[in-house]
């Protein structure tokens, strides 16, 4: 039985989850998903978080460990910053750590 990590820090301690995070980062980078920019002054910056899941085959065996980097859209305020988003990753240190491991 595999445990689903509750944080990206926990996930980095397990090579199976680390590889899932690396696969997600590789996909985001290859698709040019974002562009690093300075956030505008006096704007809410939408954060991000990792979501982890295990995909199974129909026979119950593990197909793959999946990690998704998602925006914390629930931090947006309708009418203030709802239509323009600036979403850095969890922390710059996390970005550097993950990219340095590539």
TrEMBL record:
Q: Would you say which domain of life the source belongs to?
A: Eukaryota
Q: Which residues form the Reverse transcriptase Ty1/copia-type domain?
A: 32-101
One of the Pfam families matching this protein, by short name: RVT_2
Please give the name of this protein: Reverse transcriptase Ty1/copia-type domain-containing protein
Q: Which organism is it from?
A: Nymphaea colorata
Q: Source taxonomy lineage?
A: Eukaryota, Viridiplantae, Streptophyta, Embryophyta, Tracheophyta
